[in-house]
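Work package 3, deliverable 3.1, input record:
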Amino acid sequence: MHEERIALAAWMLGIALATIIFVMRSRRGKPPVIRRIAALEAVDDAVGRATEMGRPVLFVPGIMDMDDIQTVAGVTMLGRVARTAAEYDAVVQVPTSRSLVMEAARDAVQAACLTAGRPEAYQADRIHYVSDEQFAYVAHVTGAMIRERPAACFLMGSFYGESLILAETGNSVGAIQIAGTGESSQLPFFVAACDYTLIGEEFFVASAGGPAGLGAVAGCREDLRDDVHRGGHGAGHGGRALARAGVALRVA
Amino acid sequence: MIARRVVPMAIAIVAGLVMAVSYFVRSIEWMGEAAADVFNVIAAIAFVLGAGSLLKANLSAISRRDRGWGYAAVTLAAFLITLVVGMAKIGVNPSPDAPQAAWSGSQQTAGTPFGWIYEFILSPLTATMFALLAFYVASAAFRAFRAKNTAAVLLLVTAFVVLLGRTYAGVVLTDWMPAWASGLRLENLSSYVMAVFGTAGNRAIMIGIALGVAATGLRILLGLDRSWLGGGGSA
């Protein structure tokens, strides 16, 4: 046992317990109140605008693999955007920088199209792999932005030095841009260049979706302490592993 | 249904718990490392899927003569040339440890065609893309610092103080201030803004992010989030 991590383990258990309690409460019809998030409400408008203009929607799920919890949240958001796009009959383009993300994104979009009652809207070729190389990926995505002029750009996942290049290019083609990331160093760039930004925890709340997911969010919120920072790291560690194993298995 | 949803989720939950517990229990640390290794192996195998997707997407673009199909041709050519040069170890000398084996050398050695591609094509292209960032920063700053309202004016003034304080111009401009007012010198003011206001705001965001990461991790751990299985989001 790592004695120096016992306190952290206690915090993790506390958070897990709070999460379970709030999930159960949510399922019994007492969902937590989550303040309205403008960026979330703008998703439908952005996709609707793309439909009216006859232009595609571009979704960028970041540059990291499925072992990054932000990528998992981004893929979850992709499902939501794809469902709306399927309902509105809009085209969603998803260039990815990792093979596993491509597979997960295809599954998410396919499931979204089925949920929307339009399985024929799913086209696997619209979700394609580009390159693991950071700036090769950026070159492709910005080139696609200039050529295809998407009406809406969603930048949701883990971003680094490429965040401003992507956001500014999207801005220059006049697209509505909604961004979300947990990389605090990239948030100012998104705030400056995008129309809406899911800042930090908003991004994860946005990906929570149903009442049980929101219950999980509330469970964590109840245990707000400085130690939560480290506890979150530990939980994220487990979550990353889950995503890794699950997606890897699907691919295998 | 069972093969597509239940089995992957069960394996994911077990693997996740193993990794989470191995972070705290020293004796099973190897299990967590083994799970990470398995991911890396499968991710490497999955690269074949990515390569297939890249080929298909670019070949389709060329055959349909899509807008910018020339770029697709360049991408394909670059991909295939690099792949062949790297895998066939073209121009790589045998390793001194096994001179009789023609393919024993590493293609990443300096001076090999593969190393040449990396050093003289990939690196300059990457540096060029990164250098563009300076222009994007300027255009974004121009928009963000427009003094449209009180908050924007505050942002503009703060940014001005921080930027000046981080350069030698800031030191020169306020060097005349007496010692008792040294806190108002631009370099000190800049440090104060960064250390107090900047750190406070950043920590608030970091705690929020940590909570979000914890919530998302637990959602997957508890099987509430099945979106990564293509399951259409939370339960």
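The two ends of chain A are 34 Å apart (CA to CA).
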